[in-house]
Specification:
Layout: H1 3-15, E1 24-30, E2 35-41, E3 55-56, E4 62-70, H2 73-82, H3 92-103, H4 105-109, E5 114-122, E6 127-132, E7 141-145, E8 148-152, H5 155-159, H6 170-179, E9 192-194, E10 199-203, E11 214-215, H7 219-228, H8 235-253, E12 260-263, H9 268-280, E13 286-292, H10 300-310, E14 313-319, H11 321-325, H12 331-334, H13 344-355, E15 360-362, H14 367-371, H15 375-387, H16 392-402, H17 407-417, H18 422-426, H19 430-442, H20 446-454, H21 483-509, E16 514-516, H22 522-530, H23 544-551, H24 556-559, H25 570-575, H26 579-588, H27 596-608, H28 614-630
Parallel strand pairs: 12-13, 12-15, 13-14, 15-16
Antiparallel strand pairs: 1-2, 3-4, 4-5, 5-6, 6-10, 7-8, 7-9, 10-11
Helix pairs in contact: 2-3, 7-22, 8-9, 9-10, 9-23, 13-21, 15-20, 15-21, 16-19, 17-19, 19-20, 26-28
């Protein structure tokens, strides 16, 4: 393929993700090597032309495109200058290229502190290396077919490539229906993979199958090492080291040549991040919150109280349910791999608000997964341990008894008991939670019980008209740790990168906002695994050490409350304003991938109140809407192969 044709294709692919980089664009081709690199830039550090990408190393060996930030680039720059390297500008991209020349690719990325998806061409070895940051903050999709390798930050860039096979991966569809996201390394399309976090994929021959990627950092190894070499100090010493690491992580992420702020929900994680930010800033930090007209889903008052105490420059936008519903038709375009986490809607709205004022926003993501913040960790561990005491037959019989009454029926029963029965009085969604217990009772192992706890559909294969291999995953890897720790590890390697971080990346980049996550600095992750359980869970609550840090900045009474989460009234929407939208998608869908009769039966059961699986129905409707956008469209004609583009 000639250079002109390669440039044409690469430009088309880059234009598909212009929202990720509206400030600048660049193309580089090597006709002999058969490679083209295209880049869309959101200018954050070094806004001049000296930060333009694709960028070549001073010696000419490496050519690179890079999404994300290397926060310690100034320290690395000083080290490289002492070794004789010189720099034209002050971008982290230029530092990364000099590091590759000095220490090699793998040696360099081990030194990087940051979030990144990197593609670097080695002209000496004629190799392309694709690199993803340790926690999977930045996405990286790779497609291969008939001598073509293409890659990008979003699937829509690959779909715009010289060819694209839109056949779906049945196992990925099943996993999506179960978990509401597609776990890596699979992607929704057959010939696409997601590069695993902390991995490098080096490609020498695009006509051969993709080689295995190699890990330069592993959450599993970090967890093992941390539990074998635990922190041995007391609470005061642990707090001192923890505060030092968090403060440094936040400080590094406050470096930018553009306006910067933070997303503030008023919960523990975001409040702690903003508290540290304000302590480091000589001016009020810009903070952003959205509020909803439904009180059960509205955290605006809590965020406002935290902002007032800290003295931030706070912006609050109140939205109606109609404002949130208006986002729903935009979701398939925004999330080009199906994602059914309904918090994607408020996440997009708060990012849209922040982008009106800043280009970079810090978030509190990661605190729950690192410090046992989810209720399911503590209650799930206790429940699984108790359920395992009983014989399998007794568990199954008990599950059948629970299933004899619908969730709505159990909710009505609980309402009758609330005046006199404390457990019923303090338990929200009693019927739904009892249904989850019934599902767990049917599982044979702790891993199966935890998978059941996370599953929107317990048997997604019943909804699919597709052939796939038998599913036998072990969600709770690592016999070296306790059950709670294995739950946290499972979430850190799958739910966190493939759901939460994918949601934040796509929602923020849709409005050209860079979201930074200081609580996922890999040094903080490594320290978290050294902490004994009592420094995470104390008095039946998680995130002890993070709360103690927060209390240094915000009074307890402002933040000590039941965890609310960041979501929407999904069941009410699907039974009300979204009823026609969902019904049309589910009943008129002509997909070859779903069993129409099974889907229709589930929709009828949901509408009649026999079942209350709003998350599962949302996943089905979201999948159908996604298929209309990305699968039903005509497939473009196949062009020449053997070109790698991003």
């Amino acid at each position: 393929m000639n250079a002109s044709r390669m440039q044409q294709i690469a430009t088309r692919m880059a234009n598909a993700i212009v929202h990720r980089g509206p400030d600048d664009a660049g193309i580089w081709t090597d006709e002999i090597g058969g490679i083209a690199l295209a880049f869309r830039r959101l200018s954050i550090v070094d806004l001049s032309v000296l930060g333009h990408q694709p960028m070549q190393s001073a010696g000419g060996r490496f050519t690179m495109i890079f999404n994300g930030e290397i926060y310690n680039h100034r320290v690395l720059r000083n080290q490289l200058e002492s070794r004789g390297h010189w720099f034209r500008g002050h971008s982290d991209t230029e530092v990364a290229l000099a590091a590759f020349e000095e220490w090699g690719i793998e040696g360099s990325v081990k030194k990087f502190v940051g979030m990144f998806a990197i593609a670097v061409w080695d002209s000496h070895k004629h190799q392309l290396s694709l690199i993803r940051d340790r926690m999977g903050i930045k996405p990286l999709f790779v497609y291969q077919n008939r001598g073509l390798v293409s890659f990008g930050s979003e699937l829509k860039a690959l779909i715009a490539g010289p060819e694209f096979d839109r056949s779906l991966d049945p196992a990925a569809v099943r996993s999506y229906l179960r978990y509401l996201y597609v776990p890596a390394p699979r992607a929704i399309f057959n010939r696409v993979v997601k590069l695993l976090p902390g991995h490098i994929l080096t490609i020498s021959d695009p006509t051969s199958p993709l080689p295995p990627s190699r890990a330069f950092w592993s959450a599993e190894e970090v967890a093992l090492r941390g539990t074998l070499e635990p922190f041995v100090g007391d609470d005061r010493e642990a707090m001192a080291e923890f505060e030092s690491i968090v403060t440094e992580a936040v400080r590094l992420r406050m470096v930018a040549d553009v306006p910067l702020g933070a997303l503030l929900s008023g919960g523990v994680d975001s409040s702690a991040v903003v508290g540290v930010m304000q302590s480091l800033s000589s001016r009020p930090v810009k903070t952003f919150t959205i509020g909803f007209d439904q009180e059960a889903f509205n955290e605006a008052a809590h965020a406002r109280a935290v902002a007032q105490h800290l003295g931030t420059d706070h912006t609050e936008l109140h939205l109606t349910g109609a404002d949130a519903l208006a986002v729903v038709p935009r979701l398939p375009e925004m999330f080009d791999e199906p994602l059914a986490d309904p918090s994607q809607i408020p996440t997009f709205l708060v990012c849209q608000l922040a982008r009106q004022h800043v280009t970079v926003a810090l978030t509190g993501d990661g605190g729950d997964e690192l410090f046992a913040g989810y209720n399911r960790y503590i209650s799930g561990e206790r429940l699984i341990s108790e359920l395992r005491k009983y014989p399998s037959l007794l568990r199954r019989l008990t599950a059948s008894g629970f299933a004899a009454l619908s969730p709505s029926g159990w909710n009505h029963f609980a309402d009758l008991l609330r005046p006199v029965f404390p457990v019923a009085r303090s338990t929200r969604l009693f019927g739904e939670k009892l249904g989850k217990v019934a599902d767990m009772l049917r599982a044979e192992s702790p891993s199966g019980m935890y998978r059941s706890l996370l599953s929107a559909w317990q048997r997604p294969e019943d909804l699919l008209a597709m052939d796939f291999e038998h599913e036998t995953p072990n969600m709770l890897n690592g016999s070296f740790a306790g059950l709670l720790e294995r739950m946290m590890l499972a979430d850190q390697v799958s739910y966190l990168p493939d759901d939460l971080l994918a949601k934040v990346d796509h929602a923020s980049m849709a409005v050209s906002l860079e979201a930074r996550v200081p609580l996922l600095d890999h040094r903080l992750v490594e320290f978290s695994w050294k902490l004994p359980r009592r420094m995470k869970v104390r008095d039946g609550r998680g995130k002890w050490i993070l709360r103690e840090l927060l209390y240094k900045h915000v009074p307890r009474q402002l933040v000590d409350r039941e965890k609310m989460g960041f979501s929407v009234p999904l069941a009410q929407w699907l039974g009300g304003p979204l009823r026609d939208w969902a019904g049309d998608l589910l009943l008129s869908q002509t997909s070859d991938h779903l069993r129409r009769s099974a889907v229709a039966a589930e929709w009828d059961s949901f509408q009649s109140g026999k079942t209350s699986n709003a998350a599962g129905i949302w996943a089905l409707a979201t999948l159908c809407a996604w298929q209309q956008r990305w699968v039903a469209e005509p497939v473009q004609s196949i062009a020449e192969a053997s070109v790698m583009v991003s």
